[in-house]
């Protein structure tokens, strides 16, 4: 595969989390719908109600839609908005991690279980205790432990928390204060709970100083993803209101991570969200844009494009509009 390819034609799908399970490529996207809710900074127009799972045998092969894997009406605690999910496997079971607003309109992260990668998934009765905000990414470390990375500001509500505690009235820090951090937490052996308190994943500049809240071109906004390349940990994320996918490198799953650069320049649409996966020896960036919907920011389409590294392990910047 040499150029970008849209993967799903008859639905709007976004936020693709991609994994190779049992030698097949599985895509876990958000399922965008037209609900008529006006666009706002809270993201109310992203009013998704179910998840589908897709699979492919090869990167340029046909894409199979396995249908509805989880529906909001079957999640006892959920109120609205099934946003970006991710999947993981352990001991022959598959786990789907997803954010949803609870009945009081607070984002929590839930988990649902299946015997197969494509589901259907059975949700737990309650969100993961101690979870908050959005965009879970679950990564298996080289020791076999699973780590969740999560968080998103503005509509994702991360600014309402400090030290894992909800504030009475949350706001982003002042421009010259350290930026809000994504969170990292080890999962318990049963994959259904946190094994510890979530910690800040600190992104620093080349001098070792944490990025500042006013550094909108580089600071974290949402869309965590973690992958390993040549023994180093690559944390990538969206800068949100500056619409870039950036990355930072660390030497362990908790960091700190040193900012490196831009992976994907702005796409057509407001949000940008991705995953980075090795498939049969080649690396790919899965992401979304709004070209097929004519620029409607809440109706996004998933695509895949090759990703390349330089000899020193830097990721070559991809043009989001190419
Ligand atoms: O799909 C809803 C939200 O938009 C995701 O959770 C964010 O990452 C952004 O892509």
Q: Kindly report the CATH topology.
A: Tachylectin-2, Chain A
Structural class label? mainly beta
| Low-pLDDT segments, ≥5 res | none
Strand content: 35-45%
Q: If helices are DSSP runs of H or I spanning 4 or more residues, what is the number of helices? A: 0
Could you give me the name of the CATH homologous superfamily? Glycosyl hydrolase domain, family 43
Mass-distribution shape? globular
Give a concise summary.
With 322 residues, the protein is an all-beta fold.
Give an overview of the whole structure:
By secondary structure, the protein is an all-beta fold. The chain has a single domain, classed as Glycosyl hydrolase domain, family 43 (Tachylectin-2, Chain A, 5 Propeller), CATH 2.115.10.20. It is built from no helices and 24 strands. Strands 6, 7, 8, 9 and 10 form a five-stranded antiparallel sheet that branches. Strands 17-21-20-19-18 form a five-stranded mixed sheet, with no helix packed on it. A hairpin with a 2-residue loop joins strand 7 (86-90) and strand 8 (93-102). The mean pLDDT is 97. The site of beta-L-arabinofuranose (FUB) has 13 residues, from strand 2 and strand 18.
């Amino acid at each position: 595969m040499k150029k970008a390819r849209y993967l799903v034609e008859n639905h709007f799908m976004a936020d693709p989390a991609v994994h190779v399970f049992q030698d097949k490529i599985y895509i876990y996207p958000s399922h965008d719908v037209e609900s008529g809710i006006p666009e706002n900074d809270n993201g109310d127009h992203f009013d998704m109600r179910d998840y589908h799972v897709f699979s492919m045998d090869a990167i340029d092969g046909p894409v199979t839609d396995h249908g509805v894997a989880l529906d909001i009406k079957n999640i006892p605690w959920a109120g609205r908005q099934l946003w970006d999910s991710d999947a993981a496997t352990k001991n022959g079971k598959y786990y789907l991690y997803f954010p949803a607003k609870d009945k009081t309109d607070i984002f929590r992260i839930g988990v649902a279980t299946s015997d197969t990668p494509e589901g259907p998934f059975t949700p737990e009765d309650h969100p993961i205790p101690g979870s908050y905000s959005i965009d879970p990414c679950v990564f298996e470390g080289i020791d076999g432990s699973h780590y969740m990375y999560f968080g998103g500001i503005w509509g994702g509500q991360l600014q309402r928390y400090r030290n894992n505690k909800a504030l009475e009235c949350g706001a982003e820090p002042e421009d010259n204060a350290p930026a809000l951090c994504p969170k990292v937490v080890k999962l318990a052996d049963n994959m259904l709970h946190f094994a510890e308190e979530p910690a800040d994943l600190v992104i620093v500049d080349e001098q070792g100083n944490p990025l500042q809240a006013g550094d909108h071109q580089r600071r974290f906004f949402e869309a965590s993803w973690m992958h390993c390349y040549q023994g180093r940990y690559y944390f990538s994320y969206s800068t949100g209101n500056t619409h870039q996918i950036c990355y930072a490198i660390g030497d362990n799953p908790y960091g700190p991570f040193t900012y490196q650069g831009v992976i994907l320049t702005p796409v057509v649409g407001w949000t940008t969200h991705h995953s980075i996966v090795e498939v049969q020896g080649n690396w790919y960036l899965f992401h979304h844009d709004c070209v097929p919907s004519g620029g409607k920011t809440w109706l996004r389409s998933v695509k895949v494009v090759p990703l390349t590294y330089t000899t020193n392990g830097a990721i070559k910047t991809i043009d989001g509009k190419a």
